[in-house]
Amino acid sequence: MRRGVILLVAMLVLGGGATGYILWSGHPAPAAGRSTLDLAKPGQILVRDRATGLIRGSSTRCDRFHAAHGTGVCLVAQPGAMATTYALVLDHAMRQTRRVRLAGIPSRARVSASGRMISWTVFVTGDSYTGGAFSTRTGLLDTRTGNVTVTIEDIPLIKDGRRYHSADVNYWGVTFAPDDSRFYATVATRGKTYLVEGDYTRWQARVLRENAECPSLSPDGRRIVYKKRMPSGAWRLHALDLATDRETPLAETADVDDQAAWLDARSVMYAKGRDVWAVPADGSGTPRLLATEASSPAIT
Amino acid sequence: MLSRRIRAAVALLAASMLLQVGQVTPGHADDGLISQGRPTTASSVEDSTLTADKAVDGGTTTRWASAEGSDPQWIRVDLGDPATISRVRLSWEAAYARAYRVEVSADGATWTTLSSTSAGDGGVDDLTVTGSGRYVRVYGTARATSYGYSLWELEVYGKGGGGDGSFVVAAAGDIAGNCRAGDGTACPHERTARLVESINPVYVLTMGDNQYDDGKLSEYRSYYATTWGRFKTKTRPTPGNHEYYDPAGGASGYKAYFGSIATPGGKTYYSFDHGNWHFVALDSEQSMSAGSAQVTWLKSDLARTTRKCVAAYWHHPLFNSGSKGYDPVSLPVWRALYAAGADLILNGHDHVYERFRPQDPDGKATAAGPLAVTAGLGGAENYTFEHEVHPNSLVRLTDLHGVLKLTLTGTGFSGQLVQDDGRIRDTIPATACH
């Protein structure tokens, strides 16, 4: 096997700090069957190449991708009459360790900071309560026990202080806390969407606030960045301080329909248009381009 | 004169108080209950609800009563085969005998007295006896009251006989859609109801989602009542998520339809005994978290039971290779049941059939764990197995409606998944209780 194929690596120095990131921003790896990516190596920004679908630096093709601490999740839509997606769990060398078959189209994917918990969301059609419209199915995989919860929609949900029961409950966009138990997600029911806080160990969730979708929890577990539907109909990234419940619009004013990922303790990255951008998570600064023709940003 | 209802309630209270007092068991410790469910006849019955079989059904809320105001009267149980008898236990209703004999016979014609008294005081008479024969008769010669003779239970303990304390229950979840008995075999839950009738179980257990779409009382009355409602009095139900969609309030249609059958202790979770079995009916739409009221109750209920075998059932399965996957909601319940050595767990929710090898709550296969079966096949449209198969999953079937027929003995269980066309689709091998 040729060892001399060196990928284009761009070093970015961000925000005046000393921290360096490796960004796999160049061309995808040749389809040589071997990936030079090591998900266990910290500090790499990974993106999906829009033209090829490959995770840059690898020969792995995904429709959605996320990775943390040596574990990756790759959602791949399968061709065919029935909408089918495989959620592939990848080890640090991007080798598949597990494959979960899902009915639906890839939407969101996330790995907890430790690499233990994996979540995905797919779009599905045909739920009787939607009258034919799209709904979602969100699942969890606990890599420590191997248990796959195909849909979390049966989790006991507390809303307005009471147990909530409705046939139309739909979840999407999970983000995990560092303890691998607490998580946040979006729930939709009866025409409204809410931010929920869940607990995998206790298996319970509660509604926190309305109109906050695709949450992304900061590495310190104290802030959430999510997309909020504006009166215009556009999505706008906002940050929520969990302790004070204070919501702040980020400096990104464009319509962003993505589940943001934290680049570091202070900023988030996300797909906008055909590119990946980053912006401070406190409302300050301005958006800057991280990678062109890319999506599904993740940092190892 | 007290109304019969009050009289019965007072007697029941007295009986239950007596039952709570620690009992010294006479006879040999290893002698089993050999009379339960055996053919029973009597000299007379007060009315058609107070038949002789009620005295051997294992239930302390049902009873036999003879015609009022007449002596002598008797009740006779056929043990099936010759047996050595060491103990006879009589639980009298308010209508008790002042004078009676307990007799045994090899042929049902010639009787030998095992015990007799002319100073009966009602309550529970727990008699140590020595004798053998196939038939046991309680022969009342003098009533204590102006009523007849009435027994909550007549229990014969010993060795031999034709019975092993076995009885049959039928179980399924996810039952009644919007069709009714009048639709005939076009209606899936009418087909499974006919199957239940042919099985003729002692109890019918439901694992939730008994009535779609919202378990409203009007839906129960229109659909479920016409099919599975035929077994209502012997049904021991649990609710599912659809019962909690009722706009009148969570499970309100379910509670209104089943009444005290569904909430014997005021809660949607409860337990009951039959033979050597303790049954626990749980509600997975009520909190099952560690420390919840339900789990606290469950632990103390399991600590109290003296029955050898334990079966528990509720809606949402913990382990599941079907459309929903692993559902952690009942993990604390599994931990409590595993710690108590429970034998059998029955669930619904996924409209499939799945049988697991005995395992612990963490999914490790072990003979010390309960055997779990998902049987959400009572009539709702089937789901598919499209995800990963759980490592302990032994049998997975879908595209069928049917019920689980369980044969429960004094020491173990076996079972069959019976499809609505009568075919046996799975056989649960004989398994000993822990």
From TrEMBL, chain A:
InterPro entries: 6-blade_b-propeller_TolB-like, WD40. SUPFAM superfamilies: DPP6 N-terminal domain-like. Pfam families: PD40 (PF07676). Gene3D superfamilies: TolB, C-terminal domain. It comes from the Bacteria. This is PD40 domain-containing protein.
